[in-house]
Amino acid sequence: MAETDSGLARRLATETGRLLVRVRPGNGDRTAQIFLAAQLAEHRPDDAVLSEEAPDDLRRLTADRVWIIDPLDGSREYAEPGRTDWAVHVALWERGELVAGAVALPAHRPKPRVPYRRPRIVVSRTRPPAFARQVAEAIGGVLVPMGSAGAKAMAVVRGEADAYLHAGGMYEWDSAAPVHVARAAGLHASRADGRPLHYNQPDPWLPDLLICRPELAGVLT
């Protein structure tokens, strides 16, 4: 039986993550890009690819299917010994929608869930939004700094956080796979003001992002 797009996304994210663990602290970005590009060329040769680590091939703009990948999300954290908040993103956009995606956290170790009464909002450890503290105060929440976008989004998926709020800009490959996984888990995902997210755009820049529990969406947008 042919491998499904979802199965391929999961496998490639997982295998890329294992490869990154083996070569760490080497040039993970290039190593992961070479591996993913080769795999997609072999298994989905007719699809276009948008990657952080490759020149933008604008033929993707007329393609029906585009893989949006970040071979190593959180390069800064990957380079720091002992950090676990880095990820691999593999997503598939098809005719206007994200239809498959996977996020691998190769260095993550599961933590026991601890009940927390105040909403936890994960933000960038290096570029937290200026208004995030105001948002947290407005809902009685607390900010939790963390590394890669994938790590932050998966913290919400796993219930270790309640929302992920980002402003100041990111690229499509930073959020495509996390957004697909978050939505599949029943979470809300949108622009910070509630507007829809659009992918495979001529300019892959995204100004902001919100991923949160559905009941918080009306409060945070």
From TrEMBL:
Mg(2+) binds at residues 52, 70, 72-73, 174. Its cofactor is Mg(2+). It holds the Pfam family Inositol_P. InterPro entries: CysQ/Inositol_MonoPase, Inositol_monophosphatase-like. It comes from the Bacteria. One of its GO terms (biological process) is 3'-phosphoadenosine 5'-phosphosulfate metabolic process. This is 3'(2'), 5'-bisphosphate nucleotidase. It comes from Lentzea jiangxiensis.
